[in-house]
Amino acid sequence: MSRERSAPATRRGFLKAGLAAGGAVATGGAARAAAGDPAITEIQPWMQELGPGVDEFPYGMPSPYESHVRRRNVEWLTADPVSSINFTPIHELDGIITPNGVCFERHHAGAAQVDPAKHRLMINGLVDKPLVFTMKDLMRFPRENHVYFCECAANSGMEWRGAQLNGAQFTHGMIHNVMYTGIPLRLLLEEAGVKTNGKWVMPEGADASGMTRSVPMEKAMDDCLVAFKMNGEALRVEQGYPLRLVVPGWEGNMWVKWLRRLEVGDEPWHHREETSKYTDLMADGKARRFTWEMDAKSVITNPSPQAPLTHGKGRTVLTGIAWSGRGTIPRVDVTIDGGKNWHEARMSGPSLSKSMHRFYFEFEWDGTPLLLQSRAHDSTGYVQPTKDELRKIRGENSIYHNNGIQTWYINEKGEAENVEIS
Amino acid sequence: MSRERSAPATRRGFLKAGLAAGGAVATGGAARAAAGDPAITEIQPWMQELGPGVDEFPYGMPSPYESHVRRRNVEWLTADPVSSINFTPIHELDGIITPNGVCFERHHAGAAQVDPAKHRLMINGLVDKPLVFTMKDLMRFPRENHVYFCECAANSGMEWRGAQLNGAQFTHGMIHNVMYTGIPLRLLLEEAGVKTNGKWVMPEGADASGMTRSVPMEKAMDDCLVAFKMNGEALRVEQGYPLRLVVPGWEGNMWVKWLRRLEVGDEPWHHREETSKYTDLMADGKARRFTWEMDAKSVITNPSPQAPLTHGKGRTVLTGIAWSGRGTIPRVDVTIDGGKNWHEARMSGPSLSKSMHRFYFEFEWDGTPLLLQSRAHDSTGYVQPTKDELRKIRGENSIYHNNGIQTWYINEKGEAENVEIS
To answer: How confident is chain A (422 residues) per 10-residue block, as mean pLDDT?
Structure first.
């Protein structure tokens, strides 16, 4: 196994490699001479006309040329779009911040339209002093800021039985990564005073589904946040405006949106979302329960089926994302030949615990087919497994917690396809 | 000077203090009992109705209840909104990321509406090989991700002659802080091959103003980026879509938007934006030039004139932002009594070089008037000066580079006003 050292971006860092050993390596293609390009010789309209002034867009939107950068849902996945999923266009993004407008959505009764003036947060159950907070009350508690990924437990869930969905957005797009501002849940629980037999917390949503989960007190007192802002501004409606629970590193369904109540109890509630849903059916017919932590995972976002290589041979930038519910990602390995050779990817951007990381691998494509894979290592030493390694332990009946290595096949034309190799 | 140690958010961290020593200290107010609040006993409509499904908003927008969170311009500041400024609503934000929709705008000919397919970047002048890149060409170069603040040199410029504008948005809102993805400018210059006498780079914009500045080669080769993404998605139109120069820590007018050309020369060009504009007229009638770096600065965003205290006595959260063009902000001091006592603020969120930092100070308000100030220290040891200290050196004729300490006066009702004290 060969390995390239991670280093700052450098134009000398392009790996000359491809599937065919000794194949012709194209060197150019990344810059072209000025002569004859009408886009250079013609004066463009935007160089001659005044654009909109500073009073026209109090809240800005993306360029009309970017309308393809959008969330997408898959109609046949669910019976109704009000209890369904759409996907973050991860193949169109870069860096580690997901812009609020395209963070994936998962609702059980549609996106609740809450009036913050009429919203309340209650703490009850095994507490010394049951409390109800208005939004204004909550603004008087200390806040913290953290960048965390939020991943649906069902992300990549269709892939247990082989390559199903053709696009990184659909296989891995139930994730977003934003800076949350919120009140440590610990402070609110301390305010109410948790009784000594209070061992679990049940967050409840104010939407029509009344979403609930059981959160162990250790986690509640550790790093959970009652968040009210994402990427600087108020939570978006579809992300739980005005309040959502943030449960760092744990599956997204516990991050209860439109948060209206926190009940303290002495045992878990065994509600629907932790019994018939969000449990993992094993090969022997038994189900794993309370599989909260999201294991280390990565995916190559470019090239990928929705983002083929269109430039032909030569310099090629491969990029992707990696994350772990247990800490940081110090290293990602990449192969372009289906695992014959692995190379250490270059990481760029802040490395924050329980946050998305961005990796890159630059190489000279010789135009022969490629088999692309990435493999994340997290700060605990855990290494992302293959899908087959997962299936040996978990069988093929699962929906949730598929963090297996993803493979994209790139043909001679640069087109990409979701495949499996063993 | 008393000082509180910086520490994680804690409910015990509330400082019991106010202007009047020994004044009555209110303790409660941050939580209220359930009884009698109709918002608790009534079932709200969003708990009974299905919300919009996942197919309704391919690109999401903020809640209608957040329509007050918007950029604002000041009509009398400039002759025409196409060569003008609007301001980031910093008093409505938290954390350190500015959402793309409210990043302040500064145009010289309106926001150019560029078609990326017809956009080109040229490198010419003192180079071995003049080059022209399409957007697709550029996507084949290595990229990096960094969170940087971008501040207009004129931010707080109206305050040289005393308190003028009543709101943090207007006094300090010509700043944004986002994660940029871009190609190190160094790599593109190396691709063209800079001749030995190439000492300056002139970026030129593709808007109708043809914005230009002179950037010294040392900075160009250090940390400048040719950026194409902000907070994960494509640059917004008003931020230079599809390409902008990022000049970390330096004044915003050098961050040329709609970047179309980079000319390499042996001396600065002395164009309009570095002679009649963006120079600092001193008291003796001479002008400082090439004042690129943004000095360390901070401002309290809440409470502030647009965000008064409405909750009365008791627990109060004060928050603000700090930044430096020279590195990180290890410390911010806060006073609530006009400088009699200074307290070390609590920092929360990633501390990144040339990025915004977020600080908090929690105290119990006794209901008496307050004089709020913040004072940033940067990683070089530089301490933010008072406005009077600045005026002693710079006079009152300047427009740019006012990083003086800002004062807000809070009256008994909690209303805030822009004031100066000496």
So the answer is: 42 40 34 65 92 96 98 93 96 98 97 97 97 96 98 96 92 98 98 98 97 97 98 98 98 98 98 92 92 97 98 97 98 98 98 98 98 98 97 93 98 97 83
How far apart CA B366 and CA B354 sit, in angstroms, is 37
Distance CA A331, CA B327 (A): 26
pLDDT beneath 70: ranges in chain B: 1-35
Task: Count Cβ atoms within 10 A of the Cβ of residue A119 and give its class: 0-12 exposed, 13-18 middle, 19 or more buried.
Answer: buried
Test A140 with B60 for CB contact under 8 angstroms.
no
Beta strand ranges found along A115-211 (DSSP E):
121-125, 131-133, 144-151, 175-184, 200-205
CA distance B260 to B242: 10
B396 to chain A nearest CA, in Å?
Answer: 28
User: For chain B, what is the domain count?
Assistant: 2
* Residue B139, burial from CB neighbour count under 10 angstroms (0-12, 13-18, 19+): buried
CA torsion sign for A129, A134, A140, A144 is positive
B351: how many CB neighbours lie within 10 A of its CB?
A: 15
**Rounded CA separation A332/B192 (Å):** 32
Question: Are A268 and A336 within one domain?
Answer: no
Residue A150 DSSP symbol? E
Please indicate, yes or no, whether residues A223 and A140 belong to a single structural domain of this protein: yes
The answer to whether residues B313 and B413 belong to one domain is yes
β-bridge partners, A212: A204
Query: pLDDT at position A129, please?
Result: 96
Please tell me which of the candidates B65, B131, B137 has its beta carbon nearest to residue A115: B65
Clarify whether residues B255 and B132 are in a common domain: yes
For residue A88, what are the contacts with CB-CB under 8 A and spacing of at least 6? A71, A98, A102, A103, A104, A169, A173, A174, A175, A176
- Among candidate residues A263, A288, A313, the one where a domain is terminated: A288
* pLDDT at residue A42 in the model: 85
Which of chain A's residues have a Cβ under 8 Å away from the Cβ of B103?
Answer: 60
* Token duo for residue B40: 């608790």
B218: left (phi over 0), alpha (psi -120 to 50) or beta: alpha
Strand partners, B347: B359
Two tokens, residue A384? 């992302």
Segments forming the whole domain that contains residue A327: 293-419
What gap in Å lies between CA B266 and CA B217, rounded to an integer? 9
> Can you give the pLDDT at residue A38?
80
Chain A residues 256-315 with a CB less than 8 Å from chain B: 258, 310-311, 314-315
Same domain for B259 and B123: yes
**Best of B27, B42, B63, B121 to mutate (most A CBs within 10 Å, chain A):** B63
Residue A33: its pLDDT value, please? 46
* Distance to chain A for B169, nearest Cα, Å: 13
What whole-number distance in Å separates Cα of residue B251 and Cα of residue B288?
Answer: 14
CB-based contact B400:B251 (threshold 8 Å): yes
pLDDT of the residue at B1: 31
Between chains, do A9 and B96 touch, taking CB under 8 Å as contact?
no
Interfacial B residues in 175-234 facing A (CB < 8 Å): 178-181, 183-184, 187, 190-191, 206-208, 210, 229, 231-234
Which residues sit opposite A190 in a β-bridge? none
Strands B225-230 and B215-216 turn out to be: unpaired
Q: What is the pLDDT of residue A10?
A: 56
DSSP-derived secondary structure letter, A253: G
Q: Rounded to a whole number, what is the distance in Å from the CA of A58 to chain B's nearest CA?
A: 5
Tokens 């194949």 -> residue = A23
Q: Is A88 on the interface with B (CB under 8 A)?
A: no
User: Which positions in chain B touch A348 (Cβ < 8 Å)?
Assistant: 143-145
